[in-house]
Amino acid sequence: MSAEVLPNIPRFYTALAEWAASTVYILILKKRFSGSRMVLGIALGLPCLGMIQLAAGALPLAFWVPGMIAAVGGMYGIIRFNSGVFPQDAGYCCVNAFILAEFAASLSWQLYCYFFVVRTNAVTPGGALFTILIYWVVFAPMFFFERRHMEQEGRLYVRHRELWAAVLIAGATFVISNISFVTADTPFSSRLIPELFYIRTLVDFCGLVILYAHQEQRREMQLQSELKAMESILQRQFAQYQHSRESMDLINRRYHDMKHQIAVIRSERDPAKRAAYLDEIDNEIKQHEVQNKTGNEVLDTVLAAQGMICKKNNISLTCVADGTLLNFMDVMDICSIFGNALDNAIEGVLTTEDPEKRLIRAALYSQNKFILICFENYFEGNIKLENGLPATTKGDKGSHGFGLKSIRYTAEKYGGSMTVNIEEAWFILRILLPLPPQGSPVQDNRFSN
Hints:
Number of strands: 7
Helix content: 55-70%
Oligomer: single chain
C-alpha cells in the first residue's frame, strides 16, 4: 500500500494491547480476588484503558506524552487493583506490560497494513480479528515465559533499584521507538513512514528482550541470595550442633568428676558442709537434666541445646522421638529441620507472657512406611498463611522466612513434604518423609572433631 496514506494505530487496538498485556501479569501474580470477582475486575480494565486512549487521541499532539503517561497509570491501576502484591512488584510488571503492549500493537498493525489495503485507522471486523490473532500469538507465549520469574506465592520481591532500572529501560525504548512520530529533525528520526513503523516495532522488540534479560539477571541474583541465606542458616545450625556437642562432652567429664566429689562427701563428717556439697551437685544436675536419648546422637545434641534454651526461658518442651529413623540423613539436614523448627517454635512461644502457656511439643515416629515429624507450639495473636507459609510482618519481606524454606527444601531433598497449619491457638509444622528402603546405606551421623 502507499506510504503516504499509511494510518496510525487505532486507539482501540492500543487499549486492547495494553489491557491484554496487563492481564498476562495479573494472571501470574498473586490474585486479590477469585472466581467471578476476578473476571469482573479484569474485564472492567478494558473500558477504562479504552476511555483513556480515546481521550488522549482527542488531545493535540503536544499532549501525546501526558496521554501515554495516563495510559501507563491506568495499566498500573488495573494490575494493582486485581493483584495482591507489593507496589514495587506491580510497578515492575506494569513497566514490562507497557513495552509488551507497545510491541504487540506495533507488530500487529504493521503486518495488517502490509497484507491488507488500509486507508483509515477505523476499526473493522476483519482488522479486529487479525489484531486479536496476532495478540494471541504474542501474549500467550509471554504468559509462560513470565510465569517462570514468579515465586510460588505469585510475588517478585522487586527492589527499588531494580524497579528504577526497568523504568529507565522502558523509558529509553519508548522514546527511541516513537521519536519519529514527534519530530523528523533528529539524527535518530525517519522521514519515511514504512521505515518509521519498522523502527518502532524493532526497537520495541529490542526493549522487550532487554527487559526479559534484566528479569533473568534479577531472578538469578535473587536465587543466589536465597541460596547463600539458606547455606548460612545450615552452617549456623551445624555450628550450634558442634558447640552443643562440645558442651555435652564437658558435661560428661563433669559427671565423671562428680564421682570423686561424691566420695569426698561421704567422708565429710560436717553435716553443713555435706549439705552444701549436695546442693551444689543437685543444682548442676538440674541445669543439665534436659538431655534426650533418642537413639541418634545428632538429634540428641540438637534437642539438648534447644532444651537448655527452653529451660532458661521457662518454656516447656516435650519431645517423643525415635531418632533411629533419621540414621539415613545427613548431619546438617537433621540440624536444619530440628534446629530451624525449634528456633521458630521458641520465637513463637516467647510472645506469650504467661509461662504456663509457653508449650512446645515435638514428635518423631513412623507410620505406614513414612516418617512423621511434628512440631506444635502455642501462640497468641494472628498468623496469616500465604501459599502454605506464614506471612511475615517484618520489614524485609523478601529475605525473611528462610528457616521454613530451608526445612521445606530439606524435606523435598528426601522426597518428602512440609505443611503448616493453624489449629485454634496452636502453630503446627508437619514434615512427611518416605522411609528409605531396607538395605539402603546409612549416613554416619557421629560427631567428628
